[in-house]
Write a structure and sequence with these properties.
Blueprint: E1 2-5, E2 22-36, E3 40-47, E4 49-54, E5 57-62, E6 65-69, E7 74-92, H1 94-101, H2 114-119, E8 128-131, H3 136-148, H4 160-182, H5 189-209, H6 216-223, H7 227-238, H8 242-260, H9 265-271, H10 277-288
């Protein structure tokens, strides 16, 4: 069943059951107040902007973005717009997520990874904001929105298969996050997540500017930690140094351009952020075992 929420019935959200599968399609201009996460919750903005506070973290969620949080968290929501802000709120029952997560086995054993199954409903889970273009879950949310928005052909009933798919996508997206969080020093959950968010901010800066002549020091400033601490944490979390991560990103783009065969090798080297063809060729051969000019032969 789909619940349609607006200013007139928004207070009815308080009466919805906890720990069950729910989907709310909302169209709201003004709202402000406490927000209870009834289960594992996905807050996706289809159009407009919603502001959330999850424990001590604030999120400005724009069109095409979503946040995740579980019932361990306290929330606050604010919408203030001249036109209706369209959002999709999805609750997934804990048992369903735990069941699907438990099917993933630990890489070092033939047994289910019970820690992963518990992760999504514990205080260790990383509440965070994501773009729908960057994740498996985001792709499914975009497809879901395209089905829900047309009023004339909008489904009135949702099968449980939808929630299976969303849970599978959620877990797929977080396999690496779960591992990376565990790579942070064993401190209390809130500190571990704060450290991870800082390093993630630095990584996202590198992702956005990897073609530019940037310094690791600049990414460390984005993470609000020292350059050495950023280097140490980045390597521990992602199993690669920040410098090698930059080179890897640039090389991946270079390979893509070589395969397109539209520009020459020298131009590819400069386009991908290398200072000269010599440096590029040397690093390329080290990574791929041949010169760039021989890659497609």
């Amino acid at each position: 069943m789909i619940n349609f929420i607006n200013e007139k019935n928004v207070l009815g959200l308080r009466d919805l059951p906890k720990n069950t599968n729910l989907l709310n399609l909302s169209s709201i201009k003004q709202i402000e107040g406490p927000l209870n996460f009834r289960s594992f919750s996905i807050k996706y903005v289809v159009d407009g902007c919603e502001k959330y506070k999850v424990n001590d973290n604030r999120y400005k969620v724009d069109k095409g973005e979503y946040i995740l949080a579980n019932a361990q968290y306290e929330g606050y929501v604010e919408i203030d717009s001249d036109k209706p802000v369209i959002g999709i709120c999805i609750d997934i029952e804990p048992q369903l997520i735990a069941e699907i997560a438990s099917l993933h086995v630990r890489p070092d054993t033939p047994f289910p990874d019970t820690d992963l199954a518990d992760f999504f409903h514990s205080e260790n889970f990383l509440d965070n904001k994501y773009k729908d273009t960057d994740t498996f879950l985001g792709k499914s949310l975009r497809e879901l929105a395209s089905k829900l928005l047309p009023k004339n052909d909008r489904p009135t009933f949702l099968s449980k298969e939808l929630f299976y798919t969303l849970a599978e996508d959620l877990i797929q997206d977080h396999l690496s996050v779960f591992k990376q969080l565990n790579n942070v020093d064993k401190v209390k959950a809130s500190t571990r997540k704060d450290i991870f968010r800082r390093v993630l901010a630095g990584k996202e800066f590198l992702d956005a500017h990897f073609l530019e002549p940037i310094l690791i020091e600049t990414a460390a400033k984005e993470a609000a930690i020292s350059e050495y601490y950023f280097f140490k944490l980045f390597k521990r979390i992602y199993q690669i140094t920040p410098y090698n991560y930059l080179i890897k990103k640039r090389m991946e783009m270079a390979v893509s351009l070589i395969c397109e065969n539209k520009i020459n090798i020298t131009d590819i080297a400069l386009t991908c952020g290398f200072i000269d063809i010599h440096t590029f060729s040397k690093l390329f051969k080290k990574m791929y075992g041949c010169a760039p000019s021989r890659f497609m032969l």
